[in-house]
Amino acid sequence: MALPNRRSTMEHGLEASEETDLEQEDKAPVLPQQRRQILRPLLFALCGLLLNGALMTVMGTLHLPFYLETTGTILTAFLGGYVPAIAVALLTNLLTVVVDPYSIYYGALHILIALVAGYAFKKEWIGRANVLFWLITVGISGGLGGLLTWSFQGLTTNSFTQDMVMNLRGFGWSPFWSWYLSNLVVSCIDKAVTILIVELVLSLIPKKAWSRFQLVSWRQEPMEESGEEGSAWKTLGSWSLNTKLFSMLVIFSLTIATICITICLILFREYSIQQHAYLAEGVAKMVAEIVDADSVELYLSAPEVPESYQKTARILSDIRDSVPDVVYVYVYKIMTDGCHVVFDVDEDEYMPEVSAGVRGDVIPFDASFMVYIPDLLSGNRIDPIITNDTYGHLLTVYEPVYDKDGYCVCYACADVAMKNLDSSTLDFLLRAILLFVGLLMFILALSTWFARFHLIMPIKAITRATADFDYDNVDSRERNVMELKKLDIRTDDEIERLYHALLRTTEESTRYYQENKERNEKIEAMQNSLILVLADMVENRDDSTGDHVRKTAAYVNLIVREMRELGYYKDKITDKFIQDCVSSAPLHDIGKIAVSDNILNKPARLTQEEYEIMKTHTTSGCAIIDEVIATMPDAGYLNEARNIALYHHEKWDGSGYPEGLAGEAIPLSARIMAVADVFDALVSERCYKKAYTFVEAMDIIKEETGTHFDPLVTDAFLKVSSEVFEISETNAARRA
After folding, report:
1. Mean of the per-residue pLDDT values for the chain?
2. Three-state secondary structure readout of 557-593
3. Which residues form the domain of 386?
4. Which of 92, 275, 302, 564 is most enclosed, with most CB atoms within 10 A?
């Protein structure tokens, strides 16, 4: 779903770029439109919270087994987004704590439903995949929620589910599964009604108004979420900034939560052990006060059970039964051969396989007690002991029983079962995790939402505005700068300062680029003019008019562009190659400057010796250009000028000069120049010959294809014969 747009009412870029101190910039206030973008979703979330409360109140008043407590949450998730929905879920749970203290532990499940609802609305499940959404919510609320209810409250039922449970029990189902299935049925009905109510409310709100309830926090030119599909939004690396931030939050939150829960668990367990120890100590002291220390020897030695012993045993049994957590109450006389049983009143439900000790029995010491034997034999007090041996996992307290002379004759003992402590510890851990998960989801959603609008999206906006910067023409450069200005980012932090710094740099760079391009164009125009003047000076040493360099450059331009259109040598003919060929063409005969005027202007055919001298203009031209390249190594077009000057008299069949190269061993630029040079020489009048007609010259070019000229070059040349004729005739008319 696209996020709502707002119109920017201020142009912020140029003024900001002129500031020298970004700290002193005037910050534009948040616009009323922006405030509405935040207030509307919050008010809608409040309505969702009230809807949850109203529906739960109605269900409670009618004594129905449904809650409908996620209706407002789902509706808020659909129209407002994840953050408001999670807030509604948490607040709903906090409000219901007054009535049901256990409801706070269901917050994580309700937040999970909010997340699923937000995702379902984004993927347009509602109306198209209602059943899937319904099944997921039932699984969360009835499936997971049922397990939590069983863990915290046991197999609780109401009037609606009780009959269903009894019917299922009649079919042979176990108590748990009968109860669990009954809760799932209730949840199915509950969530079906919830979805119907949500769809009804949605049908009453026009679709065009749905986006108004979306919670956003734009403080720059708004962007559509669909823009993220463009190339500029794609992640450059394997992890996006959003993923990194989210992962960091999850890792840090889990780490802190693990540490906190562990500390709380340790403190809880220590406190529980301490409370159990206080309880056991209280029981042991009570037993010590009841036992007649002076009668202990009588109890151990008397063949018949004294009446006072029976009376004391009944009292000790009552004490044990009145304190549920105490599983064993007994009195032992510690001697070197073991523990002599004075009293042992257990009916052992904790460990049925262990029978109660009989008066006078001697119980050997467990290995875990060996370290305490010296103190026990001496009648000293010892700290509570936690053991896990013959009698199970127990916390034991030994309280000395003193006779009238102050001598310790035995110990009153009380054992607390640690399994109850372990169970309560696991229960505490589960509750802590549930509370943490709910809080973690809210923190992650809120942090992700804040990071999205105040960090991720501004950075992405800058990235998108600068990723496809185009310097090719003035309009593109101005458009790029205007797009960057339109962002109008106002995050009131380093990102905004970065934005203004980037905007200033971009404007200055664009201005500098334009000025530099204009200077380069002037230099290039001057350079080309100098090349033409130099070429003209060389050509004008003979009787030609000087138009030869211009015409051959025009022919080269026609040929090379036609070859690209035809797809010939497409891996070589690039824009740069074309420009280099055309720019270098006027220098093809630069080496003639080293040839004598007598040879250049001889009005007759040259002798063989003179012809050999004339042929040196290729190597001389190469040497001249090499000297220039040595002083201007970055002048790329001079490399093609060297090739043209040196090889434009080479022939396709290898019979040319100066090196006798053949085929594609001859540089492509020189093969192109060869056709242009020969054609212009044929149609031009020289002191030693008449000019050929256009048709005659074209016929000669055709005849020399495959011997003198590259067939692909001549093919392109012949295909642009009309343009060649026009250039030829235009120059002929000018000369006339």
Report:
1. 78
2. HHHHHHHHHHCCCCCCCCHHHHHHHHHHHHHCCHHHH
3. 266-426
4. 92
> Is the bond preceding residue 658 a cis peptide, omega within 30 degrees?
yes
Residue 294 sits in a domain whose CATH number is: 3.30.450.20
CB neighbour class for 153 (10 Å; exposed up to 12, middle 13-18, buried from 19): exposed
Over the stretch 446-488, which tens digit does the pLDDT of each residue have?
A: 777 777 777 777 777 777 777 766 666 666 777 777 777 777 7
User: Is the distance from CB of 534 to CB of 674 less than 8 angstroms?
Assistant: no
pLDDT at 233 over 50: no
The model's pTM is 0.48
Domain count, the chain: 3
211 and 282, same domain (yes or no): no
Whether 226 maps to a domain, the answer reads no
Max mean pLDDT among 142-156, 179-193, 219-233, 656-670 falls in 656-670
Q: What pLDDT digit, counting tens, does each position of 257-294 carry?
A: 788 888 888 888 888 888 888 889 999 999 999 999 99
Q: How many angstroms separate the Cα of 658 from the Cα of each of 459, 616, 622, 655?
A: 61, 8, 11, 10
User: 36: which 2 tokens?
Assistant: 């509405």
Residues comprising the chain, all counted? 736
Q: What six digits make up the tokens of 689?
A: 């010959």
Please say which residue of 217, 237, 254 terminates a domain: 217
Contact 396, 412 (CB under 8 A): no
Contact 596, 613 (CB under 8 A): yes
C-alpha separations of 484 from 5, 240, 456, 503, 505 in Å: 17, 22, 16, 7, 11
Distance CA 202, CA 1 (A): 15
67-103 pLDDT, tens digit per residue, is 888 888 888 888 877 788 888 888 887 787 777 776 7
Rounded to whole angstroms, the Cα distance separating 17 from 501 reads 7
DSSP secondary structure letters along 379-399: T-----EEEEETTEEEEEEEE
Cβ burial of 92 (10 Å; 0-12, 13-18, 19+) is: buried
Residues 74 and 194 occupy one common structural domain: yes
